[in-house]
């Protein structure tokens, strides 16, 4: 090792994190750094109706709205553990550069002219994929996250998809409860392991 330079840790991603997998990697010196639940919603069921105590407009992703999307994203997730602190360009690239991204199904929630939440989506073949749902902290606790999620479910159902998939960090129990209340079920856990080398 060159003095003054550290060697980056070895990383392994697993699509199926169980107690046995964690123990197996631990024996090799790996620790679980990140884990998220993969959740599924069956679109053959009737999705719940969500009411919010104000009128919401849903505006599609468009170049002139990208900054508003990013502003709400930044406010929504800044206090979360592991927040990447991306620039607007980095977040927009991460969100929309994949050919599967659906700008027509990704919307900004606006109340009284103010951007207060968003949902972004991607097309994954037989199912829709919710990339992110974010609600500005000043507007939480009023059902907006549930309204945005059910909006996405309705749109994917109209597109003829079988199911909707999303990922939620295991350290975000509030979001987990919301999705379970709406009818999502956990289908697996995935994560990232790392160990120091050198």
Your description of this structure?
The model has no long low-confidence stretch (mean pLDDT 92). A hairpin with a 2-residue loop joins strand 5 and strand 6 (127-135). The chain is built from five helices and eight strands. The longest helix has 15 residues, at 144-158. The relative contact order is 0.27. It is globular, with a radius of gyration of 19 Å. An eight-stranded mixed β-sheet has the order 1-8-2-7-6-5-4-3. The chain has a single domain (10-195), classed as Aminopeptidase (3-Layer(aba) Sandwich). The chain is an alpha+beta fold. InterPro entries: Acyl_CoA_acyltransferase (IPR016181), Bact_Acetyltransf (IPR050832), GNAT_dom (IPR000182). This is N-acetyltransferase domain-containing protein. Residues 56-198 form the N-acetyltransferase domain.
Q: How would you classify the quaternary structure?
A: single chain
Q: Separation of termini? A: 7 Å
- Distinct helical segment count: 5
- Give the CA-based shape: globular
Low-confidence segments: none
Strand residue content: 25-35%
CATH homologous superfamily name?
A: Gcn5-related N-acetyltransferase (GNAT)
Reported CATH architecture: 3-Layer(aba) Sandwich
Following the backbone from N to C, one meets helices and strands in this order, namely EHEEHHEEEHEHE
The whole-angstrom Rg is: 19 Å
Q: How many domains would you count in the coordinates?
A: 1
Summarize the main sheet: 8 strands, mixed
User: What is the β-strand count?
Assistant: 8
């Amino acid at each position: 090792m060159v003095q003054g330079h550290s060697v980056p840790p070895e990383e392994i991603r697993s699509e199926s994190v169980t107690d046995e997998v964690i123990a197996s990697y631990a024996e090799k010196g790996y620790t679980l750094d990140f884990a998220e639940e993969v959740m599924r919603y069956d679109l053959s069921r009737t999705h719940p109706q969500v009411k919010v105590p104000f009128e919401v407009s849903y505006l599609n992703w468009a170049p002139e709205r990208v900054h508003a999307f990013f502003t709400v994203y930044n406010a929504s997730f800044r206090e979360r553990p592991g927040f990447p602190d991306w620039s607007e360009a980095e977040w927009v690239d991460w969100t929309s550069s994949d050919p599967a991204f659906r700008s027509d199904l990704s919307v900004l929630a606006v109340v009284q002219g103010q951007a207060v939440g968003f949902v972004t989506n991607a097309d994954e073949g037989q199912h829709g994929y919710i990339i992110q749902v974010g609600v500005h902290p000043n507007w939480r606790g009023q059902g907006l996250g549930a309204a945005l999620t059910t909006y996405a479910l309705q749109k994917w159902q109209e597109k003829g998809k079988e199911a909707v998939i999303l990922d939620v960090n295991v350290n975000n129990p509030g979001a987990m409860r919301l999705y379970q209340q709406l009818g999502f079920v956990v289908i697996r856990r995935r994560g990232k392991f790392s160990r120091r080398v050198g």
